[in-house]
Specification:
Radius of gyration: 40 Å
Order of helices and strands: EEEEEEEEEEEEEEEEHEEEEEEEEEEEHH
Number of strands: 27
Helix content: 10-25%
Largest sheet: 12 strands, parallel
Number of helices: 3
Shape: elongated
Structural class: alpha/beta
Strand content: 15-25%
Distance between the termini: 151 Å
């Protein structure tokens, strides 16, 4: 076992490493190595782990890398400047992790990888690889991480060719390619590892001397997971040309932590079934053509920390409560039909509907009847009041009481009785 990682080594990779007998682990990652990978390294038939990542190695990959060691479990060459085509993997039956992310590799993904039945991690993101979707990968029984992001893949995803494809897949990143057609609903229906609760599966992918790592877009930011938790699940199909509606079945992928369908041509409405994704931490459906209202069921996503519905055709009032109260304006901008907080556009929920003609006539009749009652009461009261006042003021007792109470003379003169 030899680890020279994270130093300041520069220059070319020494060819002598291939002649060290019994060496099963070699890591020279995170240095400043340049030049080509010498073909002599394939002489080290005992290698189980070869990690040359994060250097400045260039040139094409030695064709022998796919054949030199039947014991090879990990080949990590990510973040270099390697180019040309990926070699054919014919004899590395024990290969568990292949990471070629962040190079300049081109051509087709070699179908010989389907012979690597122990493969758990395949990361070829950020290269120039082309071709249609490699559906032959669905037959790999142990595959858990599939990253094809930022390449030149094209065409529809198509339908599965096996009965139970991608049974153990937990990270699926096909973003920033030229895939077209509808979202792969039939593949979603087979992602059984994303339907289960992984609460008891603590730990990280890898083994005691090597842990896998990947780059993922998490909550709108590219983050390197230096260790991949076994409970981590995400789907990223953003920045393609997918169209059609979001399948309702997505709501059954209960263990999903992240879902990104942004920057496509999706239409239809947001499925209320997304509200059942109780572990979801980020949801991005921005820059599509999605219509309708935002389902109130999404307020039940108590772990949701990042939401982006911007630049669609959504309408109605934005739901409020729980996590939705924490999202800002940026989550909803570009939807002219949306209203309510956090947007400045208020909803017109308090505007009354105009009354029907029947109600108008009824209200007029009721008003007329009410005024008749009022006038009848007023006139009756006036007549009675005048009568009582005349009787009172005409009374002698009233004159006597008034004179005693206030003094002075009585208010009215009375005529003498004639004899």
């Amino acid at each position: 076992m030899l680890s020279l990682a994270s130093n300041m080594f520069s220059g070319s990779l020494p060819s002598c490493f291939g002649s060290i007998q019994g060496l099963y682990f070699l890591s020279i990652s995170n240095n400043q190595l340049t030049g080509k990978i010498p073909s002599q390294i394939c002489n080290a038939s005992s290698f189980e782990v070869l990690n040359l990542s994060n250097n400045k190695l260039n040139g094409s990959l030695p064709p022998c890398l796919g054949n030199f060691s039947e014991n090879l479990s990990v080949l990590d060459l990510r973040n270099n400047r390697l180019e040309a085509m990926i070699p054919i993997f014919a004899k590395v039956k024990s290969l568990r992790s292949l990471n070629l992310n962040g190079n300049q590799l081109e051509g087709l993904l070699p179908q010989s990888l389907c012979t690597c039945k122990k493969l758990e991690v395949l990361d070829v993101g950020n290269n120039n690889i082309n071709g249609s979707f490699p559906n032959w990968l669905e037959s790999l029984p142990a595959l858990q991480v599939l990253i094809l992001r930022s390449n030149r893949f094209y065409g529809p995803i198509g339908k599965p060719t096996v009965k139970f494809p991608f049974q153990k897949l937990r990270i699926m990143d096909l973003s920033n390619n030229d895939f077209i057609g509808h979202l792969p609903r039939q593949y979603f229906e087979s992602l059984s590892a994303m339907m289960k609760s992984h609460a008891a599966e603590f730990g990280y992918m890898g083994d005691s001397y090597y842990t896998d790592s990947v780059m993922v877009d998490m909550k709108g930011v590219s983050i390197e997971l230096v260790k991949i938790q076994k409970i981590f699940t995400t789907i990223d199909l953003s920045r393609n040309q997918f169209e059609g509606e979001i399948p309702n079945f997505i709501g059954r992928l209960k263990s999903l932590h992240g879902l990104n369908f942004s920057h496509n041509k999706l239409n239809g409405s947001i499925p209320p079934s997304l509200g059942t994704l109780s572990n979801l931490e980020w949801l991005d459906l921005s820059s599509n053509e999605i219509v309708g209202v935002i389902p109130s069921q999404l307020t039940d996503l108590t772990f949701l920390a990042s939401l982006n519905f911007s630049h669609n055709k959504l309408v109605g009032e934005i739901p409020h409560g729980k996590q939705f109260n924490t999202f800002n304006n940026d989550s909803f901008i570009g939807n002219s039909g949306l209203c309510g907080l956090p947007l400045s556009k208020a909803c017109n929920n308090e505007q009354e509907q105009p009354p029907s003609p029947r109600n108008v006539h009824q209200a007029e009749d009721d008003g007329f009847d009410n005024w008749k009652v009022v006038w009848m009461g007023y006139c009756s009261g006036l007549v009675i009041g005048i009568s009582i006042g005349y009787i009172v003021l005409s009374s002698r007792k009233f004159d006597h009481w008034f004179a005693q109470r206030f003094g002075g003379r009585t208010r009215f003169k009375r005529g003498r009785r004639r004899n």
